[in-house]
Amino acid sequence: MSAVTDGFHFRVLCNDGHARRSVLRTPHGDVELPTFMPVGTQGSVKALSPDEVAATGARIVLGNTYHLWLRPGEDVVASHGGLHGFSKWPHAMLTDSGGFQAFSLNTKQKLVRPSEDGFRFQSHLDGSPRFLSPEIAVEVQGKIGADIQMQLDVCPPGDSPRDVVEAAVKQTTRWAKRALATPRPARQALFGIVQGACYADLRAAHADELGAMPFDGLALGGFSVGEPKEKMFETIAAVAPKLDPSRPRYLMGVGTPEDLLACVGFGVDMFDCVLPTRNARNGQALTRNGKLIIKNKKHARDESPLDPECACACCAGGYSRAYLRHLYLAGEILVLRLLSQHNLFFFGELMASARRAIEAGAYAAFATSALERMRGGESDSVASADS
Question: What's the rounded mean pLDDT across residues 283-289?
Answer without folding.
Answer: 97
